Task: structure prediction
Amino acid sequence: MAKVTGDFSKGSVVKTVFKLSLPIMVAELVHITYNIVDRLYIGRIPEVGTAALTGVGVAFPLISLITAFGNLFGTGGAPLASIARGEGDNEKAARIQDTSFSMMIIVGAVVTALMFFLSPVLLGLMGGDEETLPYALDYFRIYVLGTIPVLLSLGMNPFINGQGFTRVGMMTVLIGAALNIVLDPILIYNAGMGVKGAAVATIISQTASAVWAIAFLFGKRPVVPLKRFRVCGEELKNTVKLGATGFMFKATNSVVQTVVNIVLKSWGGAASTLYIGSMTIINSIREITICPCNGIVSGAAPVMSFCYGAKLPERVSKAIKTMLWSTLAVNFVFWGIMVFAPQWMFAIFTADQELIAVGAGCARVYFLTFPMMTLQLTGQNVFVALNHPKYALFFSLLRKIILVAPLTLLLPYTGLGVMGAFWAEAISQVVGSIACFTTMRFKVWKPMIRAGSAASEGEDKAL
Result:
């Protein structure tokens, strides 16, 4: 039933979550190949691989900022559309979906123009120097031309998944990733384009993904199809209010990465290129390690939203528990790898033995408290799925802006030196995660269950 109609009010919650999660998980894993495959090939460009890889690392905060706009309308609109469907209001769900689609195009056009012309100044502020800035500019100025396809492929896929068509959502990503994998070596090496070739390959791939997603949503299969280009004021306000969390998560990640690059450049001395290169690879590894968890929480989110709209708190609670314990198990596995054998992961991205040695030490610190991320993921996604934007936004800001950024700036002065930038992540993971999950548990989860129990007792008495 859920597979065809997106009705998540029936059947096993655990089975439904995993049935939705597995295709999304595959899609998440494939999606990260857009950037990671680029980095794999870029890091192995003869003679200039390390400098070119570091240049892409300099551009990474701006790339995160671009994708943040996809989160603004995708993670903001999709849960609201699912809640509306749970309430039986498909017309409202359609208005939300149309508004999100239209705003991605409008915002994408503005971001493209601004980022293209301001990129030299912005990349310089991000930590680019005379060695790495040329590579950062070569990559980013081409990448930014594909902003609209990037936003549409990332932002509209949650609407596809939220209606139960997770295999279609998986194909959105698979199509683009396959193209990217084929085109990267051809354009980077055979055509002699270097980092420019990696950016061109990404644009072509993302465009193919966007065309597939939009064509499906305008077709006859979706429960709530795209209808037309329109912006509904009320739906836009609510979408932006909820989507601010996903936006700030990405945007603050961009800010933090900028701060980290500056600190690594300032405190790394002659080895600063190695430290920035290490952080670039760590970000890539983090994308891989978080991929299964993103699949799980993305599978649980529409179930939580739909059942919340349908006033089925027991099923919402079951979905939360499934998400919590599944992501915890996954994170412990990756924690073991990154603490005890990080050099294996680094060797995937570079053949530079000095970079592998430096990076392995940095990774052990960075991933030291990685299992705690389970609590942050669970709390944050419950806030979004159940439409609690204030809590979701606060804890997104707490984690990155209030904790990570200041710690990154301050810890090097405590005697930790350049390694303080990596300890900042480990420390903030503990504090932010406990605060987020505890608040969700007592302010959202428990009250929802109590309200559901009271409603059930009232119905029993009436009978």
The CA atoms of residues 265 and 271 lie 9 Å apart.
